[in-house]
Amino acid sequence: QVQLVESGGGVVQPGRSLRLSCAASGFSFSSHAMHWVRQAPGKGLEWVAVIWYDGRNKYYAESVKGRFTISRDSSRNTLYLQMNSLRGEDTAVYYCARDNKVTTSWTDYWGQGTLVSVSS
Amino acid sequence: SYALIQPPSVSVSPGQTASITCSGDKLGNKYASWYQQKPGHSPVLVVYQDTKRPSGVPERFSGSNSGNTATLTISGTQGVDEADYYCQSWDINTVLFGGGTKLTVL
Known about the structure:
The structure holds 2 protein chains of 2 kinds.
Chain A: E1 3-7, E2 10-12, E3 18-25, E4 34-39, E5 45-51, E6 58-60, E7 68-73, E8 78-83, E9 92-99, E10 107-110, E11 114-118
Parallel strand pairs in A: 2-11
Antiparallel strand pairs in A: 1-3, 3-8, 4-5, 4-9, 5-6, 7-8, 9-10, 9-11
Chain B: E1 9-12, E2 18-23, E3 33-37, E4 44-47, E5 61-66, E6 69-74, E7 83-91, E8 94-97, E9 101-105
Parallel strand pairs in B: 1-9
Antiparallel strand pairs in B: 2-6, 3-4, 3-7, 5-6, 7-8, 7-9
């Protein structure tokens, strides 16, 4: 069965960096685009970034462009999100989600999420 | 910028039909998906490509999309359907979620 397990969240000071990981199993990782989606406390879902199946195409929400970098390692079946210059408004649960296709479409499986708290 | 607009809340009596709308400019020219999220849980896909239902999702969930509005319909709503619902659409280089609708079954 499809499993997505996020890790790497925690408390970090504003301006610092954090790297999230998402370990994927139960499917052919290199055959799907992958997303990061976040949810601030008590708020709705906000798409963060997508990386296509081969890692060549990456797209970001305007709110994180230039600060966050999405990447994938198919040899490890792992998705990453490098977050730099963190701000208070980046505080959220971060979910990784599998896209149904090799490029951008709908997400069909989600992980359990990892909480990132940006605070001094 | 492009936005998907959902009503913040919808209320329905058990056994009745609930309709949750998602509005966006020419949304009918794109595909819409819908997600259910219960408190403390991750979102779950309930409708994709406007009208299709993933395996395991009850038949009472259905979707439509035309013009500027996509609609999620829950027929014979049950108490277990009480949750937040989010619509989603995408272009090649961006994904957008609606603001979410809290469905109350009372």
